[in-house]
Design brief:
Structural class: mainly beta
Order of helices and strands: EEEEEEEEEEE
Oligomer: single chain
Strand content: over 45%
Number of strands: 11
Helix content: under 10%
Shape: globular
Length: about 120
């Protein structure tokens, strides 16, 4: 069974960098043709896809967040990491990591609430 678990600080100050890690179990993040995504949901709003890192290490980001986003991975730990720089209160959201394949996004992690506030 594939499981994903987000971790990181729940509170980040404005202008700082948000950093979250997704730990994957039950599958390898280098498994062919899968993509490992970050998705967020601000309070009272819909889901927003942030970007992914692919099985071979390629990355692709949402154009609206591209200038502030970096996704990397640590294959020895089977983890991938999101960094979002220069955060503002508008970046407050539930952040999810998810596996993406032919069937869409599944499974998802349970999500982690990140609040941007001084």
């Amino acid at each position: 069974q594939v499981r994903l678990q987000e971790s990181g600080p729940g509170l980040v100050k404005p202008s700082q960098t948000l950093s979250l890690t997704c730990t994957v179990s039950g599958d390898s993040i280098t498994s062919n043709y899968y993509y490992w995504s970050w998705i967020r949901q601000p309070p009272g709003k819909g889901l927003e896809w942030i970007g992914y890192i692919s099985y071979n290490g390629n990355t692709y980001y949402s154009p609206s967040l591209k200038s502030r986003t970096s996704i990397s991975r640590e294959t020895s730990k089977n983890q991938f990491t999101l960094e979002l720089s220069s955060v503002t209160p508008e970046d407050t959201a539930l952040y999810y990591c998810a596996k993406e394949g032919d069937q869409g996004f599944a499974p998802w992690g349970q999500g982690i609430l990140v609040t941007v506030s001084s």
